[in-house]
Automatic annotation (TrEMBL):
Lineage per the UniProt record: Bacteria, Pseudomonadati, Pseudomonadota, Gammaproteobacteria, Alteromonadales
Name of the protein in question: DUF1145 domain-containing protein
Native organism: Aliidiomarina halalkaliphila
Pfam families, sorted: DUF1145
Membrane-spanning intervals of the chain: 6-25, 32-56, 68-84
InterPro entries the record matches: DUF1145
Top-level division of the source organism's lineage: Bacteria
The keyword Membrane belongs to this UniProt entry's keyword annotation: yes
Keyword vocabulary terms for this entry: Membrane, Transmembrane, Transmembrane helix
Length: 93
């Protein structure tokens, strides 16, 4: 599971870098508009994931600001990170 999380973090980091680079150095032609649209969709979806995570797990997991930051940056991979971190600290019977 750890390898999946690391690979997911790398992929999402590259996606964020690519989308934000478009704002600094606009890509030629229609690509600029497409990448701005994709950035907007990514932000909205990750905010939605944060809200879903809060609604589903806030009473059980007690997430911190770092946890919400991880979910915003890495989406479902951030979710997996938070849950794995919390489960590692929970003794199993």
């Amino acid at each position: 599971m750890r390898a999946v999380i690391i690979i997911g973090q790398i992929i999402f980091s590259l996606i964020w870098i690519l989308l934000l680079a478009n704002l600094v150095v606009p890509f030629p032609g229609q690509a600029f508009g497409l990448f701005v649209l994709l950035l907007g969709i990514l932000v909205v979806l990750h905010l939605l994931q944060m809200l879903i995570f809060y609604a589903a797990f806030h009473a059980h997991v007690h997430p911190t600001g770092k946890d919400y930051g991880a979910i915003f940056l890495f989406g479902v991979v951030g979710w997996m990170m938070v849950l794995q971190k919390r489960n590692a600290g929970t003794p199993r019977a």
